[in-house]
Amino acid sequence: MFQRIPSITTTELEKLDRPVIIDVRETHEYKGGHIPKAKNVPLGQIAAFSSTEPVYVICASGMRSKRAAKILRKNGVEVTNVRGGMMAWQGLVKGGIK
């Protein structure tokens, strides 16, 4: 019944080849700086999101993305949480300053 949500570090995420990244922060946070090619789907809208591809969810610290991952998994999406969120991200950032 209970299944643990898989998670990876930001370093592991950065090494992946073209992952589908969903940033679940609010729009103003996303505009302040996000991973290039990450799609913004705020947590409040995540239940309507669907994907046939595996997705990686990220937020500011990893807490909202963990909640989003549980919702997505319940909806049949193969999902992995990114531990540490954007606070741990050391890679390229689009918009804002990091």
Task: Outline the structure in words.
The chain is α/β, with parallel strands linked by helices and 98 residues long. It has a single domain, classed as Oxidized Rhodanese, domain 1 (3-Layer(aba) Sandwich), CATH 3.40.250.10. Helix 2 links the parallel strand 2 and strand 3. The protein is globular. The model has no long low-confidence stretch (mean pLDDT 94). InterPro entries: GlpE_sulfurtransferase, Rhodanese-like_dom, Rhodanese-like_dom_sf.
Domain count: the total is 1
Radius of gyration over alpha carbons?
12 Å
Q: What's the CATH H-level superfamily name?
A: Rhodanese-like domain
What is the CATH topology? Oxidized Rhodanese, domain 1
Q: What distance lies between the first and last C-alpha atoms, to the nearest angstrom?
A: 40 Å
* Portion in helices: 25-40%
Note the total helix count: 4
CATH architecture: 3-Layer(aba) Sandwich
In percent, how much strand structure appears in the residues?
15-25%
The CATH class is identified as Alpha Beta
Brief synopsis:
The protein has helices spanning 10-15, 27-31, 63-74, 85-88; strands at residues 7-8, 20-23, 39-40, 55-58, 79-82. The protein is an alpha/beta fold and 98 residues long. The chain has one domain: Rhodanese-like domain (Oxidized Rhodanese, domain 1, 3-Layer(aba) Sandwich).
